[in-house]
Amino acid sequence: xxxxxxxxxxxxxxxxxxxxxxxxxxxxxxxxxxxxxxxxxxxxxxxxxxxxxxxxxxxxxxxxxxxxxxxxxxxxxxxxxxxxxxxxxxxxxxxxxxxxxxxxxxxxxxxxxxxxxxxxxxxxxxxxxxxxxxxxxxxxxxxxxxxxxxxxxxxxxxxxxxxxxxxxxxxxxxxxxxxxxxxxxxxxxxxxxxxxxxxxxxxxxxxxxxxxxxxxxxxxxxxxxxxxxxxxxxxxxxxxxxxxxxxxxxxxxxxxxxxxxxxxxxxxxxxxxxxxxxxxxxxxxxxxxxxxxxxxxxxxxxxxxxxxxxxxxxxxxxxxxxxxxxxxxxxxxxxxxxxxxxxxxxxxxxxxxxxxxxxxxxxxxxxxxxxxxxxxxxxxxxxxxxxxxxxxxxxxxxxxxxxxxxxxxxxxxxxxxxxxxxxxxxx
Length: 427
Description:
- It is a single chain.
- The protein is mainly α.
- The protein folds into 2 domains: 1-194, Growth Hormone, Chain: A (Up-down Bundle); 197-415, Growth Hormone, Chain: A.
- The chain is built from 19 helices and no strands.
- Helix 1 runs antiparallel to helix 2.
- The longest helix has 52 residues, at 375-426.
- It is globular and about 70 Å long.
């Protein structure tokens, strides 16, 4: 790496860019209900607006992965800055559904573009410590969600409008845009190592890479679907369901900050295996307990999922380096795409289960519109209390399967490396 490259400043500028990404998730979640009331939007319209970010992200990260070697990481991050700036300003001055739809799409594209450039950037500036530094970088995603939800909570208490809350994202946006505009960037690892474009795309057909893509579906769903839906699924089980998300996210921040010794002691595949087991135990506790044990479940679940996303990316970068930036970004895009599809599927499944818990022939809308405290409202609440854990039980299957898959991967990677180690010892 060239001596003129300031990797510490590049790293912290990348963290600021990811902070904007996570703030957009946290703040949007906190103000979505108010946007619906202010602009007279129904639930379907609000759902479409929220889902737009999940579709813009994989679109941008996959396309960005394909062009980052061509235009360079710096230009890609300048594009992310422009998309973030436009999306935030358009949100602040939104006047209805279409302006909110477009602004959320722009922010989703910006978020995906940030990861499309920053993931290979972290790998390029820390070639001997990829998995650990990717974990340190990605701690800013759960960290930003915590910051975003706290911003909404405290500014709401102070009577500050949602436009100001969204506008606060301009501060880290302008900072990362300024830093990236003046810093020098390295080329991606694939370019610096002389791997041709055709060789990179051929490497995507490597069976191990295809397996990792499939496993990424499971790890992303386990982490993001469960985290996003904890409040919905357990609202009627616990009076502090949103606090469960805060605890889980806080554990993720702490865990990713301590990734160095964990990854070095256990190896990436060992970390993934233990993460899958802890995730399964955490989801089981969330779906089968009540009271204080729910918080124990949230802590264990947070310990399980905290290493999934960055360690999956680090594993591919370390063990399949010829896949380059495209490989890392396909992993991220595949994960987010899987989450969006699973969310839509489980939303329908949730409604189906809810209908089964209500009296035969019941009109769900009638129960949803019933005044609080009425017999219909109480019946609906009891139904939701039963349905939430059932959805978690269904999702529990995923980390259980992942536990077996990662155990096989752990043994495969250990056996594959044995001949190399023995040759080194003989020399």
